Amino acid sequence: MSTISRFAAEHAPGPVVGVPAPRLSWNVETATPGWRQTAYQFRLRGCPAPAPGLQTGPEAARPEDRPAGIELGPKQSGDRQILVPWPFEPLVSRQRLQVAVRVWGAGTGAPEPGPARGPAPTPWSDWLEVEAGLLSREDWAASIIRPVSQPEDSCAYLRREFSLAAPVAAARLYASAQGAAEFRLNGRRVGQDRMLPGWTSYGHRLRYHVYDVTAQLAPGRNVIAARLAEGWFAGRLGWWRGGRRRNYGDAPGLLVRLEVTLADGATVVVVSDQHWRSGFGGTIRTSIYDGEAFDQAKEPVGWDAADFDAGAWRPVRTDPPPAAALVAPQFPPVRVVAERRPQTWLRTPAGRQIADFGQVVTGHVALSLRGQAGASVELRFAEVLDQGELATRPQRTASNTDRAVLGGQGKLDWAPEFTFRSFRYVQVEDPAGALDKSSLRARLWRNDLARTGWFECSDPELNRLHANGVWGIAGNMIDAPTDCMCRDERLGWIGDAAYVLPAAAFLFDTAGWHSSWLDDLAKDQFADGCPTLVVPHVPLEPFPEPYPCGVFGDAACVAPWALYRQTGDLDMLARQLGSMAAWAERVGAEVLSGFPTPGFQFGDWLDPTAPPDNPENGRTEWDVAMALGAVRSARLALAAAREVAGRAQPALAAGLLPDPDPSPDAVGSPAVGRPPPPVVAPPARGSGPAVSTAPAAVMAAALVGRLESLLRQVLEAFDRRYVSPEGFVASDSQAAYAMALAFDAIEAGKRGRAGERLVTLLRRRGAVEAGYPGTAALLDALVGIGQYPLVHRLLAGRGVGSWRYPLALGATTFWERWDAILPDGRLNPGDMVSFNHPVFAFVLDWLHRHVGGLAPAEPGYRRMRVAPLPGGGLTWCKTTHLTPYGRAAVSWEIDRGQFAVEVDVPPGCQADVVMPGGGPAAATLGSGSHRLVGPAAGIPPQDDGWWGAHSHV
For the chain: N or C, fewer Cβ within 10 A? Predict the structure, then answer.
């Protein structure tokens, strides 16, 4: 029998949704081979009034399907299971209801038994709780409150008392902040979430969170309270000349609405307003970069409970609600997801004591102190040691120091609240011996995203490499896909984020998380089409924004397309299309105009051949990299426009939408030597490319021809300027050939020679000599020219320019540079030296798709491509991914001259299987478990051609 195994609304982590018409998704479990959904139906309960038009069709007439109080929707034909449009009347603020689904389907075998009229549906799913948040600004009726004065790096304490005349029947806390807040009710923390409400482009969007606080309230006097730090909103961010403060506002603030329903039916509402009081307490210093300090003697006892005398506290300053949209999150907040004990204690050559946690993690350390008043412990953090001492130079101006001081109580259990960093080693200064060393715990922080992908093979070192990537990617998931977590950045650099997105979205459920970040990317994007270099945007001196920055700007096209391929979220792609097209046209115009705009260019960033203090100056010239990126961006924007336009065709045919105007003047056309007209009317600076008033699909249809023309022009320009008749590419570097091949930027007649030259350069060097843009392209370029054994050879390398080099030096995450630690054990002298920097972990995506053999052939894995490429001496591999449709898995082994692969295909999906080495012909499999066996004799052996300088002589 088939059943519904997962039913969810939007990408929401819980029942609360922030939109009036949440999309619905479900998985099916069935033993029927080749099962495919043919129809579906919803039912709803909890609606305050019957929604019109719901009771239609013969299915709705069956009384057993419509118990009292339940509204039944019509049976809908179709196989859509993911992000299906909301089938009922739109929700209103605070509305709570339950929805269930059942489906019909058939497989390759006999239909499931049912009445004579056709196959039986599945049983109804469990009821899905759906609760609307505050969907209108008017619902808040609250002010932003701030302390009258809050010094830099301080933490304000805010409170308000109120009374309840009867027992509480229900209560909801709607909480937001400009800054980082911890909310409390009657002396107890509300939830376990950290750094609330999270980091967004604060000028455009401000998140709020919703908590059921019924159990924390009681009749009589009650207190709502919060601790408030500057966080990302007003705290120090960036490195240039000490960084910038007050990037989004002059001071942090709270926005609160508490709604209480009493047992007698009365309601009580408490909001952030002039009735609050503010003060300060034991948290005397807190900074994301510099750490937190707590003095127990200064903590006012009971400040967050009734009966506290707040007479000395000051009134608050009230401001109007922010102009930004107030949005509910579509992914889990930052939380403590695990704890870790020190693996050993070290004594350094200078006599310092250091706790080694055995793994680079992101978060903070919790501790317990016992002793006399005034005894203190200071903790300093680092990812690596340098000559046996704590390596703090890579942190630049970030001091990463926590300090706790005992008060008169003689004991203190403490952990910081508003700071985090990446670390493995913690140096402990404990002059009074107050620390209980057994209490020390590393608490791991990240957005609490569910794990969805796994990989394992017969090579233990490759497994360790994969594990390092998982640690690094997860450790840089604190509300934005950050570059690193130890130095004075921790910013959402868009280039890094785009390259690692496919691996991240395979390993974790990032659909809502990445979608939210991309929304900020589009909103922060400049009116001329240039995206900001970090998202959420922080002005980065000395970068002269806005200007077209090659490679990094391409993230505006690369990231949405990669997320669409992983999740199948076409609405997300439609939302990003204006941003994609605007960047594709802006960078295309820059290339076609001869690169007239000044500004720093990353080029093939972090090429190991570049000088340590000049990491952009590698073997590949920046204009070559930018031109190749322009080709890729135009190609991806065109692909997105075609996908989104596809949804318009049925409506256009039915006359429900206006025909797109095919004339060039309707949307403009690119012209050589000058920037093309914008995709849509330019908005105010910094608010991103505007969204067309026409339906997105119609806009997309109008864009297709325009982007086709742009792609044609940039391809012609690249070939004319940078490719010789013999297929040599300017810069004559691994990165230049790899990107030209991977981005399909080189004419068919020249691809063979370009591929040969790439192989020659690899063999000559015997290692990767490319930064992360070139290296990411290199992996797929070699597969595309039939040279995938060379990737296995690169994966087996152990010198500088190989993935195993850091493993030999004890790495537990990915490094920013190939040689962040030099062969002699010294740290690289450059200032770009991070040891938890996951961008090079894009290799995990290659392992998943090509070694494991599990890749999406259609967006969201509705159709899978199973094409393992064994090599490197591997004898088995297992890869699993929880796709939007359910669990998919590929497991293969080589044994006794045979290659056997087992494939698990989720219900409703198909898999195209290509056996390696000329095995059986490609097969298309329906849902279920399958095993295919073929000869292993045709699998290419490990590459043993000449390798390294002069080895061919």
Answer: C
Q: What angle do CA 420, 423, 428 make, to 5 degrees?
A: 95
The answer to whether residues 24 and 99 touch, using CB atoms and an 8 Å cutoff, is: yes
Helix (H) or strand (E) holding 643: helix 622-646
What radius of gyration do the chain's Cα atoms show? 29
Instruction: Report d(CA 749, CA 726) in Å as an integer.
Output: 9
State the Cα–Cα distance between residues 951 and 943, nearest whole angstrom.
14
Burial grade of 691 (CB within 10 A; 0-12, 13-18, 19 or more): middle
pLDDT tens, position by position, 67-88: 557 999 999 999 999 999 999 9
Q: Enter the pTM of the model.
A: 0.94
**Contact status, residue 576 vs residue 560, Cβ threshold 8 Å:** yes
Across 669-689, average pLDDT: 38
With beta carbons less than 8 A apart as the criterion, state whether 292 and 283 touch: yes
Q: How would DSSP label each residue in 164-225?
A: ESS-EEEEEEEEEEESEEEEEETTEESSS-BSBT----TTTEEE-EEEE-GGG--SEEEEEE
CA distance linking residue 636 with residue 625, whole number of Å: 16
DSSP state of 671: B
pLDDT of residue 787: 95
Give the integer Cα–Cα distance in Å for 199 and 206.
8
Structure tokens at 821: 């630690």
Of the candidates 532, 530, 552, 514, the one whose C-alpha atom is nearest the C-alpha of residue 773 is 552
504 neighbors 523 (Cβ within 8 angstroms):
no
8 Å CB contact between 683 and 690: yes
Tell me the helices (H) and strands (E) count for the chain, helix number first: 16, 42
Q: In this model, does residue 667 exceed pLDDT 50?
A: no
Q: What is the pLDDT of residue 665?
A: 34
